[in-house]
Design goal:
Elements (H helix, E strand, L loop, with lengths): L1 H24 L5 H4 L3 E6 L5 E2 L5 H16 L3 E2 L8 E6 L6 E6 L8 E6 L2 E6 L23 E6 L4 E7 L12 E5 L9 H13 L9
Parallel strand pairs: 1-3, 1-4
Antiparallel strand pairs: 2-5, 4-9, 5-8, 6-7, 9-10
Helix pairs in contact: 3-4
Length: about 210
């Protein structure tokens, strides 16, 4: 009797395990990502500007916003406005550790004027931007911080991370989607935006019905 029971358990395990493994391979995104219409692009708060290229992150942010405008699905909003999603960008230069400038107004902008094939975007910052992380968790790159030199430790490649908007301290939660690759924030193409577009298109494809 015990032998028959053991055989039955083994057969059930062989049937169930592959199904579970198959489910883990499916790539999907939360519904709030698929329903999103607005996005705010920011420089990752813990990113410093490379000493030899002090506008690298600001340039990457601008390139991502223009690529989003050309895509047309998500409308970039200015600092100080609420958005459905938040995209944090951070550039890499092939080195895990590099001297950077942190603090001060280097990544802040009072307004923006961008022109792409998809149209023209002109806007100004509206009020004080809401905090992206809990101020009590560490120093912030706000206007009251003095610029300082530090050794920035992070990914050696460009990083593109997507977070949920309309929540408190959104960047304190894990990103819902991340893409890290060399020069993926650079024009032309901005590969990170193209990969995010593909991920959304894949998530929206009808899923085959599961067999009972």
């Amino acid at each position: 009797m015990n032998a028959r029971l053991s055989s039955l358990v083994l057969v059930v395990a062989l049937v169930v395990v592959p199904a579970g493994a198959k489910d883990k391979k499916k790539s999907s995104l939360p519904e709030y990502v698929l329903q999103a219409t607005t996005v705010r692009v920011v420089v990752s708060p813990d990113a410093g500007e490379p000493v030899d290229h002090p506008m690298a992150n600001a340039t990457a942010r601008d390139s991502v916003e223009k690529a989003l405008m050309q895509w047309g699905r998500l409308q970039p909003v200015m600092d100080g406005q609420e958005s459905d999603l938040i995209i944090a960008v951070r550039t890499g230069n092939g080195r895990m550790v590099q001297p950077t400038v942190k603090g001060g107004p280097i990544d802040q902008r009072p307004g923006v004027a961008q022109s792409t094939d998809g149209g023209i975007r002109i806007g100004a910052q509206q009020g004080q931007p809401p905090p992206l992380t809990d101020p009590g968790m560490g120093p912030q790159n706000g206007p009251l911080n003095q610029p300082r030199i530090s050794n920035d430790v992070g990914a050696s490649d460009d990083t593109f991370e997507v977070y949920r908007g309309h929540v408190q301290d959104p960047l304190d939660s894990p990103p819902v989607w991340r893409y890290i690759a060399k020069d993926c924030l650079r024009e032309p193409g901005v590969a990170a935006v193209e990969e995010f577009r593909k991920a959304i298109a894949k998530a929206e494809q009808p899923q085959p019905a599961k067999k009972p």
